[in-house]
Design brief:
The chain is α+β, with helices and mostly antiparallel strands. 38% of the residues lie in helices and 21% in strands. It has helices spanning 3-35, 58-72, 109-113, 115-126, 162-165, 178-181, 204-212, and strands at residues 82-88, 93-99, 134-146, 149-161, 184-187. A 5-stranded mixed sheet has the order 1-2-3-4-5. Strand 1 (82-88) and strand 2 (93-99) form a beta hairpin. Helix 2 (58-72) packs across helix 4 (115-126).
């Protein structure tokens, strides 16, 4: 075989191999692209080691949040009652942040518990139709971080079990029962104690203070 024919056959073989590789790459890319989930529908549990099947999607969380905003409206401070709805693949937990009615700095312990708004949120979330095992409700209020500077901060946090909530008679449930239903119920910021007036000059307490000094 002449060198020209040999060269021609080598070139043809190389072209066939390159064409085959190109077809294989295109096929693999197309398969991967078609298998990739829509980011808007991807389960939040994806990437979590123990995220269960049927975990809420981003679209479902967004729909639930909008539904809660419509149902519960705004609080007495003019803020949306429900600020956010999120999901943790592990430990299969829905996290809902809602705004309290009272300023923690002047609220009583009973007001800080915010049982009526928490019950409203708890009932609406449970009826929302999403799958989860645990529910954490985080109540926020205006907290003075530094003199003159206030920020909306979580001051009450409660965790509930789906198993327990599924067996409730919601139409008979009173707000006072909410704290007992929680697996954990924590007030993270205690109300400030009223400042004590300074003792009058010449008083026994004032004289004792001077002696101890």
């Amino acid at each position: 075989m002449s060198s020209d024919k040999r060269t021609m056959w080598v070139q043809a073989t190389v072209l066939v191999i390159l064409a085959g590789l190109g077809y294989l790459m295109v096929a693999l890319y197309a398969r991967a692209y078609n298998a990739a989930p829509d980011p808007g529908e991807a389960s939040i549990a994806d990437g979590h080691e123990n995220g269960p099947p049927g975990a809420p999607t981003r679209a479902q969380l967004s729909e639930l949040h909008e539904s809660l905003r419509r149902q519960l409206g705004v609080n007495s401070r003019g803020l949306p009652r429900v600020a956010s709805v999120n999901y943790d693949g592990w430990p299969d937990r829905l996290v809902v942040v809602f705004a309290l009615d009272h300023d923690p700095a002047g609220a009583t312990p009973e007001q800080m518990a915010e049982l009526r708004p928490m019950l409203d949120v708890l009932r609406a979330v449970h009826a929302g139709g999403l799958r989860w095992r645990w529910l954490m409700l985080c109540g926020t209020g205006p907290v003075e971080l530094t003199p003159g500077k206030t920020a909306e901060t979580t001051v009450v946090r409660a965790t509930f079990s789906r198993e327990k909530l599924d067996h409730l008679e919601w139409n008979k449930l009173e707000p006072v029962a909410v704290q007992g239903l929680a697996e954990q119920f924590n007030v993270l910021l205690e109300p400030k104690a009223p400042s004590q007036p300074a003792p009058p000059a010449g008083s026994t307490q004032d004289q004792s203070s001077k002696k101890s000094a």
